[in-house]
């Protein structure tokens, strides 16, 4: 009994160490799509991350009962899969699962792209093969079996589904169910390079068979592709109609919701006006009563004086009463509780050209316009200082810790970095040394920049930039370099990037997300592979991507993509995470994510405030007249935006958000 326990314990130890030392597949292989079901789990079409080579990946949950069988299968694959008629074994990996769940074992094998013999028979006219094809396949299968039998291994599941074909018409046995029939000593004595049995001979015209096989495969593909495309078109049309119907329904719901909010707002305003009128009327009546009382007191004093003897004085109390009655509040204060409605204020400065961007520098506001850079002093008298003239500023961000202002500026839309110390000295003029230095540097030789995003990952600051047909990723290099240096470059993209962001998947893998005129796309930074995240095919023509929002508390895995008058929730692999669709009441000119976990849309008739988690409407700010508004920046509870007026002039507003977000301005 003790010996048995010892052997069981030793076996468990071996199994534990065997699976512990297998690598995690993250960053080495990735799953593409399901292609079938194996004995222990699903079989996926996979891809090697760095080389892009395809592989068949069997994913299995590892339980204690199956560990020994799986280990035996892996050992068989390692020893006997290196043969022209056996699907080659590449390796095994273990993907760790959360506590309480079984780990996943990934067996990576050679990928046979033409499918199985059974699949080929079903696609062949008449569902049968020619005799010479059958002979060719049987010969290749027997070669593979002879290799296994020579090593005392029995294949216990020979059938058409386990006979695979590569795209070059090579026949491979899938290693699914083996049994070992000999001893290790016997196996070691055998020579692995032993010749093929004499009963297996070469078939005449083998190259002709291969060509005919490939021709048949192409014919089947040509015959099935139009049918598949026709079915896909039908499905797409049906799906488009469904999306359009749902979209119209959402728009009607939003209009009804807006109408109810407007009615509620009107009723509140009427109630307030009525209360103010009643209050003014009550105050006026009170004033009138006081004046009448004062007159009565005055007449009483005169009557008393008439009957009082010479030198007598009226009672002090009476005089005090008269004095009190004569105090009239000529400018009564409207006593109302402080409102928690949002406060919107406008700066006096009217800019002669359109305001394109802004960024907070301390408490002050840097403003970029069509023809220059300005500083709006928010700490004092609201003065405005001109810093740079005759240069267009399209986008900007202040990084005070690095002493830099990042901009897209100039006629050629170059990416320039300005030093804050140099800009500060242009106002104070107190440091001659700073004045002598050059105030800015270009980032690389980048021209034609469309959009950029600064992303902080651990201690590294990445700068991801969208250009006309490419995306560049730069990283900040600290002293002694103190500049952004090139990190990755992705050129010749099929779709022109208009907006761009960078996410870190589970704190490990960097992925660039960008929007174009047709939808949203992703780039795996490690492998350079580009794939579509979401294409809104139900919208005719081009789209306008507003914002890419990486949702909080999702480890960089989930996104809200805002475009046109709606937004959808997906993960970084293009799978929908919520059935909810964020639907704006009107087409917004710009959309922005706020630190309060809310998303704001600026329309011509109203500003809408919505929950970033659910897309529900949380507030509406109605305009008194239609106007074009643009989001600039935000910090804490203050949001800065600009209006574009007739003639191209602009003014800047700031909004302090409150609890009551139903407001008219």
UniProtKB/TrEMBL annotation:
> Which residues does the UniProt record annotate as the domain CNH?
352-639
Q: Region labeled Disordered — which residues?
A: 175-204, 218-237, 247-275
The Acidic residues compositionally biased stretches are 176-196
Please name the GO terms that the record assigns under molecular function: ATP binding; protein serine/threonine kinase activity
Record has Lyase as a keyword: no
Cellular component GO terms held in the UniProt record: cytosol
Q: According to its UniProt record, what is one Pfam family this protein matches?
A: CNH
Specify the domain of life of the species encoding this protein: Eukaryota
Enzyme Commission code(s) on record: 2.7.11.1
Q: What start and end residues bound the annotated signal peptide?
A: 1-22
Q: Does the keyword Nucleotide-binding apply?
A: yes
Question: Where is each Protein kinase domain found?
Answer: 29-334
Q: Which residues bind ATP?
A: 58
Please provide the record's keywords in A-Z order.
Answer: ATP-binding, Kinase, Nucleotide-binding, Serine/threonine-protein kinase, Signal, Transferase
**Which InterPro entries does the entry mention?**
CNH_dom (IPR001180), Kinase-like_dom_sf (IPR011009), Prot_kinase_dom (IPR000719), Protein_kinase_ATP_BS (IPR017441), Ser/Thr_kinase_AS (IPR008271), STE20_Ser-Thr_kinase (IPR051700)
To which protein family does this belong? Belongs to the protein kinase superfamily. STE Ser/Thr protein kinase family. STE20 subfamily.
Q: What is this protein called?
A: non-specific serine/threonine protein kinase
Q: Give the organism the record lists.
A: Phasianus colchicus (Common pheasant)
């Amino acid at each position: 009994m003790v010996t048995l326990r010892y052997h069981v314990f030793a076996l468990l130890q071996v199994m534990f160490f065997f699976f512990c030392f297998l690598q995690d597949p993250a960053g080495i292989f990735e799953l593409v799509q399901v292609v079938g079901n194996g004995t222990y789990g699903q079989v996926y079409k996979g891809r090697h991350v760095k080389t892009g080579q395809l592989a068949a990946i069997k994913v299995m949950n590892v339980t204690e009962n199956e560990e020994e069988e799986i280990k035996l299968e892996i050992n068989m694959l390692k020893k006997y899969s290196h043969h022209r008629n056996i699907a080659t074994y590449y390796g095994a990996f273990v993907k760790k699962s959360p506590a309480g769940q079984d780990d996943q074992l990934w067996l990576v094998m050679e990928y046979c792209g033409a499918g199985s013999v059974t699949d080929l028979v079903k696609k062949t006219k008449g569902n049968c093969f020619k005799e010479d094809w059958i002979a060719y396949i049987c010969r290749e299968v027997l070669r593979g079996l002879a290799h296994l039998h020579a090593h005392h291994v029995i294949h216990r599941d020979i059938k058409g589904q386990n006979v695979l074909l590569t795209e070059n018409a090579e026949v491979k046995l899938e290693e699914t169910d083996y049994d070992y029939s000999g001893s290790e000593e016997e196996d070691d004595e055998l020579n692995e390079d032993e010749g093929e049995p004499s009963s297996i001979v070469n078939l005449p015209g083998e190259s002709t068979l291969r060509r005919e096989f490939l021709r048949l495969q192409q014919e089947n593909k040509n015959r099935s592709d139009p049918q598949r495309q026709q079915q896909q078109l039908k499905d797409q049309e049906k799906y488009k109609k469904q999306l359009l119907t749902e979209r119209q329904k959402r728009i009607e719901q939003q209009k009804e919701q807006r109408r109810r909010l407007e009615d509620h707002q009107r009723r509140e305003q009427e109630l307030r006006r009525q209360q103010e009128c009643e209050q003014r009327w009550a105050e006026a009546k009170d004033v009138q009563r006081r004046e009448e009382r004062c007159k009565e007191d005055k007449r009483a004093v005169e009557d008393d004086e008439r009957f009082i003897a010479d030198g007598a004085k009226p009672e002090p109390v009476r005089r005090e009463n008269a004095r009190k009655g004569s105090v009239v509040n000529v400018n009564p204060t409207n006593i109302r509780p402080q409102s928690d409605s949002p406060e919107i204020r406008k700066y006096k400065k009217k800019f002669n050209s359109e305001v394109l961007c802004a960024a907070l520098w301390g408490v002050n506001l840097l403003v970029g316009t069509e023809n220059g850079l300005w500083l709006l002093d928010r700490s004092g008298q609201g003065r405005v200082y001109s810093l740079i003239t005759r240069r267009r500023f399209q986008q900007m961000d202040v990084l005070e810790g690095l002493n830099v202002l990042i901009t897209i500026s100039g006629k050629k839309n170059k990416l320039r970095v300005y030093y804050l110390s140099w800009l500060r000295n242009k106002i104070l003029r107190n440091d001659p040394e700073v004045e002598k230095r050059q105030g800015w540097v270009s980032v690389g030789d980048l021209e034609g920049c469309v959009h950029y995003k600064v992303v902080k990952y651990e201690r590294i600051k990445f700068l991801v930039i969208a250009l006309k047909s490419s995306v560049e990723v730069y990283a900040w290099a600290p002293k002694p370099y103190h500049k952004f240096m090139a990190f990755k470059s992705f050129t010749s993209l099929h779709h022109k990037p208009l907006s761009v962001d960078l996410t870190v998947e589970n704190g490990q893998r960097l992925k660039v997300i960008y929007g174009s005129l047709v939808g949203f796309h992703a780039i795996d930074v490690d492998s350079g592979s580009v794939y579509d995240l979401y294409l809104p095919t139900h919208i005719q023509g081009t789209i306008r991507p507003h914002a890419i929002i990486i949702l909080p508390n999702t480890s960089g895995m989930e996104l809200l993509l805002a475009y046109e008058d709606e937004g959808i929730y997906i993960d970084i692999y293009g799978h929908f995470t919520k059935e909810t669709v964020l639907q704006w009441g009107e087409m917004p000119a710009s959309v922005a994510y706020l630190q309060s976990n809310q998303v704001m849309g600026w329309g011509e008739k109203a500003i809408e405030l919505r929950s970033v988690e659910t897309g529900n409407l949380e507030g509406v700010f109605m305009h008194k007249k239609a106007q074009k508004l643009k989001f600039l920046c935000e910090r804490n509870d203050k949001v800065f935006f600009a209006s574009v007026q007739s003639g191209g002039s602009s003014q800047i507003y700031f909004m302090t958000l409150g609890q009551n977000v139903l407001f008219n301005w």
